[in-house]
Design goal:
The chain is mostly helical and 258 residues long. The protein has 13 helices and 2 strands, in the order H-H-H-E-E-H-H-H-H-H-H-H-H-H-H. It has a two-stranded antiparallel ribbon with strand order 1-2.
Length: 258
Amino acid sequence: MVEIQPARPIGRGRVADQILDDLRERILSGALPDGTKLPAERDLAVQYGVSGATVREVIRALSAMGLISSKHGSGSLVTAHGDTLIGLSLASVARLEKMGPADVLGILNALLGHAAELAARDASTEELASLREAAEAIVPITSVTQASKGLRLYLRTLAEISHNPLLATLCRYLIDLQIDLALQRSGRSLAPWKQIAGELHTERLDIVDALDRRDPGLARQLTRAYQERALPLVGSPRKAKARRARGADLSPLLRAWA
């Protein structure tokens, strides 16, 4: 069992906040890495010299932050993942500002363009080969599941070979949001996927070719043009204002993600 000694004496004031800060810092610093099982609530209470009610308040707060997973009878497990933390933050901001699909996915356009620029400089030959393999596997389009998985893999691979962990994490969240929104909008009909995923096959291969030629500017330009053409699958930018006014149809997805 992990034994936790407070980093500093717990003084007066909001005791729960002090304990929360202490445990959060341990998790984010890696002192309590992903997968670590926290002591039972009664043991934490003893180690911090506080009541069980105070510890339960802290556990609830850490769980809400996405830093731990807590189940009755099973204890609390550290589950701090960058994707989860960023997803919670982005989903909260998007809901608060009533952002529409064009607002959110416009950000993905810019981020993927930058990822392609970095990948043109830093990706290995093997990584570029894996991106080409992902692009070629998308067609022919045989099912909605196959098309959505293929597009998700291609875009995620492009983000990951940028070798920028923060950029890749941001892109993964927004890519998944884009694909999930496309699934929602299409009603799982195959026709839209054949139109977008199939017709843009050449453009995806052109991006890989630009990366192979180590041309950052062209890679960025082609990637952003690709995203602009793909956007109609999840919503036209011209309708963004109307969607924002009625609360945006991202809300159900964002509630689920947050």
